[in-house]
């Protein structure tokens, strides 16, 4: 299953609403996750089952979607959100990732 | 608290076999629904899933690596080992191991969490 993630990068102002999309080449159930990779660090699970926020992350992060189209939204971008975000499908092997979205502050 | 730590060489020569060890704590790989996976990330590039070993010994591999991967678990030592045969420059990457779990009723995986800190491996003569 191919995952097409867009945009590949974005620059937004603090407080802006940011949306990242991930489109799968086949229908995926709830086996979909988002990860946050801060610069120079290992990825961290951000959202699982398409829309469940991992405990410890602020509620400005949310995930939605079903079928083939999924979205990660940051409702109010903060400086600490500067990172690369990846989507992943765990519906069928081989598990695959999107190409990543690098989020920067304008 | 679950922790995973990768270890292995930082430099390997082309055509050699790379052996990486993931040592974990805070969970048992005997529990149904639990797995440990290996992933990698070439410098400046995206994440790539490589392999997964399940609690029951089942193994899954990324076919894009053309049968060069072998994953094994040693439950008594809390370790998972990945070997990559016949390495080349394209195998230069940070290699991560990660705990996988999810729906324990359906025994379906929903995430990789947490990840180890990663180990950078360069392939060069």
The gist of it:
Chain A has no helices and ten strands. Chain A is mainly β and 106 residues long. Helices cover 0% and strands 54% of the residues of chain B.
User: Uncertain runs of chain B with pLDDT below 50, 5 residues or more?
Assistant: none
Proportion in β-strands of chain B: over 45%
Secondary-structure element sequence of chain B?
EEEEEEEEEEE
Q: What's the oligomerization state?
A: heterodimer
Question: How big a fraction of the residues of chain A is strand?
Answer: over 45%
Features:
heterodimer; A: 106 residues; mainly beta; seven-stranded mixed sheet; three-stranded antiparallel sheet; 0% helix; globular; B: 125 residues; four-stranded antiparallel sheet
Task: Explain how this protein is built.
The complex is a heterodimer of chains A (106) and B (125). Chain A has 106 residues and is mostly beta strands. Chain A contains no helices and 10 strands. In chain A, strands 2, 4, 5, 6, 8, 9 and 10 form a 7-stranded mixed beta sheet that branches. In chain A, strand 8 and strand 9 form a beta hairpin. The termini of chain A are far apart. In chain A, 38% of the residues are buried. In chain B, the strands form 2 sheets. In chain B, strands 2, 4, 5, 6, 9, 10 and 11 form a 7-stranded mixed beta sheet that branches. Chain B contains no helices and 11 strands. The chains are: A mainly beta (106), B mainly beta (125). Chains A and B meet through strand 4, strand 5 and strand 9 of A and strand 5 and strand 10 of B.
Task: Give the SSE layout.
The complex is a heterodimer of chains A (106) and B (125).
Chain A: E1 3-6, E2 9-12, E3 18-28, E4 32-37, E5 44-48, E6 52-53, E7 61-74, E8 83-89, E9 96-97, E10 101-105
Parallel strand pairs in A: 2-10
Antiparallel strand pairs in A: 1-3, 3-7, 4-5, 4-8, 5-6, 8-9, 8-10
Chain B: E1 3-7, E2 11-12, E3 18-25, E4 35-41, E5 48-54, E6 59-61, E7 69-74, E8 79-84, E9 93-103, E10 108-115, E11 119-123
Parallel strand pairs in B: 2-11
Antiparallel strand pairs in B: 1-3, 3-8, 4-5, 4-9, 5-6, 7-8, 9-10, 9-11
